[in-house]
Amino acid sequence: MLQSVSNDTFLRALKREPTDYTPVWLMRQAGRYLPEYNQTRARAGSFLGLAKNPDYATEVTLQPLERYPLDAAILFSDILTIPDAMGLGLSFEAGEGPRFAHPLRTEADIMRLAVPAIDSTLSYVTDAVTQIRRALTNANGVQRVPLIGFSGSPWTLACYMVEGGGSDNFSRVKTMLYQHPAWLHRILEINAQAVAAYLNAQIEAGAQAVMIFDTWGGALAEGKFQRFSLAYTQAVIQQLKREHNGEQIPVIVFTKGGGQWLEEIAAIGAQAVGLDWTVDLARARERVAGRVALQGNLDPTVLFAPPATIRAEVRSILDSYGNQPGHIFNLGHGILPLTPPEHVAEMVDEVHSYSRSLRLAAKA
Q: Which residue range(s) make up the domain with 288?
């Protein structure tokens, strides 16, 4: 049954419909830059304790919405939940990021890999989605803003699964690509099935849009990106539920460092393409020719600048896109942990106020 959303600006922008202003949300909008997030994380005891508890995940998902008039909520979770559910043994070391106890290094490791049972291994995520959606809805059944679900892309997950954690050069996974491409294709095939099942479970639980983070797609060479990343992201999209309970479910794809492949990314079936800060929005809009909405793309480090500079950079991005439908304002990557929260308020206010002025000027 279709539910009423009080502020559906984000969903209408994804459909490239006219909106009164440009909607804005932030990648990693619930995170360490917020003191209230850090307090909740301390109560949870660890990052995984936070992410795997639906009550805590709901609490931190809502925190930025209490501070800022954002136009969407995004599920609080991590892209590495799927490989953790596959038995690779995820942990987070202080100051070092994610680590896997059992990375994929041999053919035997890879042949044992299987799609996890989402209902049992990742129920804490779907429970959080349901709980967040309920928390966003008032007593009259009206929802404040839409809820976004997400996953890492098959390639980006494979990078962590083979490397065993983060990497500066992805030497292990790229060596596998050239020495044992069949091994890597098997990992990617399993990952694509798992990501599709995971996102579909989030949709069934209440996610109203989903985003695929291909964070490390830009690490691949021309030709290899298409074969080892884009093809598997497209395979995920082809398996997704595009309607649930009367709601259309749009898909956003974000490839960091993928600007040179924008036309190809725009052709795989998503409704929107996220852009990092290296891409000119005006040219990007011309290149996609109305096929998809565009999301982005303020450099996250701009938020360390004085408020006047932040507002000027916001206006520059909005002017670059132009007074046209189909733009969702966001950062070009996740918000940085030391970002001053008051600077985020300046950015959100300028996005809303300046884009409204552009709409009004066009009508005059």
A: 9-363
